[in-house]
Amino acid sequence: MLQKVWRLSHLALALIAGIFILLASITGLALATEPVIEHSKATSFHHLDELDLETALLNIKAEHPEVISIHRNAYNQISIETIDENFESQSFYINPFTGKKIANISERSAIYEFNTVLHRSLFLKSTGRFIIGLTAIFLILIVISGFALLLKRYGSFRKIFSKEKYDGTAAYWHSLASKYFLIPLFIIAISGAYLSVDRFLIESQPQDIWDFEQNENTAETEILELENINTFDNFKVSEILQIDFPFAASPDEYFYVKLVNAELLVSQVSGQAINRVSETPALKTKRWSFHLHTGDFSWLWSIILGLSSLVLVGLFISGILIWLKRIIKSKAKNKCPKDEAEIVILVGSETGSTFGYASRLAEAFIKLKKKVYVASLNQYSKFESAQHLLILSSTYGDGEAPYNASQFLQKLKNINQKAHYSVLGFGSTDYPKFCAFAEKVNQELHKKEGLQALTAYATVNKNNESEFINWTSELSRALDLNLEIQPPKEAQTTLKIKEISCLNCDQNFTLCLKTKKINNIQSGDLLAITPKADGRERLYSIAKVDNKVLLSVKKHDMGICSTYLSQLEKNKTFKAKIRKHPSFHLGNKKNVIFIANGTGIAPFLGMIDEAKTEKEMHVFFGLRKPESFELYKDYFNRNQSKIKSLNLAYSRQEQNSQYVQHLIAQHPETIIKCLQNDGCIMLCGSLAMEKEVKKEIDKILKAKLLTNINNYSLQIICDCY
Amino acid sequence: MKKAIFLFVGILTLMSFTNIKSTDPYKCLIQMKNYSGEGAYIVISLLDENDEYLKTIHVRGEDDEWYHDISEWWNFQGKNKASLDGITGATISGGSRAVTSLEINPDWIGKNYSLRFETAVEDKAYHLDDIKIKLTQELLKGQTLKGSGFIRFVKILAQ
């Protein structure tokens, strides 16, 4: 419930203040360049803390006897105001180490002026300042609610900074950018808001330095030379902001000295400060807010501010994309009214992607002339004609309900419905509470009177298509229907042949393909090729090597697709679909064992190539003959140093014929070490091989650890056919 | 012809002589109070014995779209449209000070004429007589002239 409040307020605040935040970010980005440029100029001095104020004053007075005042700005540029021979006031930059003029003061660039006014007041004076102030306050609330959502998403503060799998979605970029820029953005928002609050509510003013009892002592008194004024002995140039010289050599004229955190009036007669006011806490806060907001004190901080502005623009765009996707995807189009539907599909989804599965399921039912109604879990109510409730739900953050399912469990308690149900959980085993919400829903449905389970509770890890299809087959059996689930609608990609090998002794060959989509592809993804001859789709595991797609194919004499591929020539192109297969990607596990037979080695060639060296990788590879290895030899040789052990089994040779599972049986310690160190075992190849290898692993676990393979099922990942 | 040249040179000499002698340069320090808000527009003018405007001596604030805020002076300046070239400077903000060069004709001194400092700040207030004081020789020797509006004090000295 609380989470819903955070999310709603995060969205609402961003929608209300969005356009102003965007404007302030863009102008802020332009303004952030100013301190970087100013600090790099020759007029900016970076060792003013080594220069005595008195030395600097004497230098300046020697060069410019008529000096009226000296200023140091935040960029450590020293300027003086003086009167020239024509009694005209002149200002210019000087070198405080020599007192000499080094540059004229040029007017601030019109671009910066324009951006400043737009950033601060939108060219609307006080009204604009007020709007921008409110925007800053909104930004504070957006950052806070965003932080709360990050906490919810990851479960705890420490987990926020754990590595996240790249999936290229707006949600990924939104959370990645926000977690790293959380602190700078919060500082920008707080400091900006404070500057507005100070202007409208506090109106901090320094104490009045002139407010003191002046001695009306008119007796002629001797005026001290500059070098005899003791007060100046104690300061470095870096401590002062401004010094006004006395207007005349009379006792009632003073040096006015503005320090970073105080103001002084210094007598020309005694050389001592006759009045001093310190900076009030309100002014100090204002000063630091200004420094932090503008970055004027440090070019490094300005760069951080500039990057933060850029990130804010990105966060705005990605945030809007997330929101739009959720709205568009969650609008289920139902053809029949809710109370006529026989089958009700209820969806719990955070990003809207689960709705894609729901609509494919619904279409399969519609094809069989069944009446289907799709709704979000929060829309649960009494469905008059419903016989089956099919629930597809993801889990949010640390085992909580997705946003459109937050009220479901409450509603379930209050509504009496007679139906059969089936629950399918969507999630990722990368998160600790895998499918926890779906599981909870399943338990509650089980307890509820009137509801009966139709199939066993099932899950889909990282959008694994086959797990979804398995569940729908279960459903088909239970309902005695023949559900035909259409593959998800995907775009075709063009691939160009760069290299094609000859057939080896086993009729195997490799294909090296170039595509523009290569950056979206990871080893382990699938290439779905549908030859025109029969219109049936074949899947090939992809290896990504040198930014190209590498396929390993076995040519079957009667195979339509493999024959078609084997006859392609260099530089020819063909079209295919790239299907993401995130459950079969090389994760961040430190220990990995690759087990393959035949052409199943393909994805691993890419994974080994891309892997960082700190991984401990073992390969178990079953082939027919020693010559069979020639086809893959180069890919192993180039990564020799990364591979801890390469174990080859040959099944069709004169002596020592063996299969890959026999190799496993010979290396129990490798298997155990990997599983116990939270590593993973990846299998690719034939289903027969998968069965035999799993049997061997089970044997090893039973013998050495007194457990079985089911306790490690999440660490053993297969892509077999 | 000779006469004409003589006359011409004579007039020129006289003109340049009077030009040099007509005004003396003074430096004027204006110290502002610690008010909050934008920089103050300040107009220094010479008034006759009846407090009618005679001449604009100096203007602080260069954006003439705000001049109508200094309403009394603008009634005078708007009509006579005398050039302000060379006698303007930037506005002075709260708590700070500025030194300005003023041209004062010795003929004005001791004639019951006055100096007026008029001030105005955007969104704040307009002070017609922030300082109004008889123009005397004493005044031009660094006497402290206290302001009643945005000005804390003014001092004028010969250069």
Automatic annotation (TrEMBL), chain A:
The chain crosses the membrane at residues 130-151, 172-195, 299-324. Gene3D superfamilies: 3.40.50.360, Nucleotide-binding domain of ferredoxin-NADP reductase (FNR) module (3.40.50.80). Residues 343-476 form the Flavodoxin-like domain. GO terms for molecular function: flavin adenine dinucleotide binding; FMN binding; NADPH-hemoprotein reductase activity. Its EC number is 1.6.2.4. Pfam families: Flavodoxin_1, NAD_binding_1, PepSY_TM. Keywords: Flavoprotein, Membrane, Transmembrane, Transmembrane helix. This is NADPH--hemoprotein reductase. GO terms for cellular component: cytosol. The keyword Membrane applies. It comes from Psychroflexus halocasei. InterPro entries: Flavdoxin-like, Flavodoxin/NO_synth, Flavoprotein-like_sf, FNR_nucleotide-bd, OxRdtase_FAD/NAD-bd, PepSY-ass_TM, Riboflavin_synthase-like_b-brl.
UniProtKB/TrEMBL annotation, chain B:
InterPro entries: DUF2271. This is Flagellin biosynthesis protein FlgD. The lineage of its organism: Bacteria, Pseudomonadati, Bacteroidota, Flavobacteriia, Flavobacteriales. It holds the Pfam family DUF2271. It comes from the Bacteria.
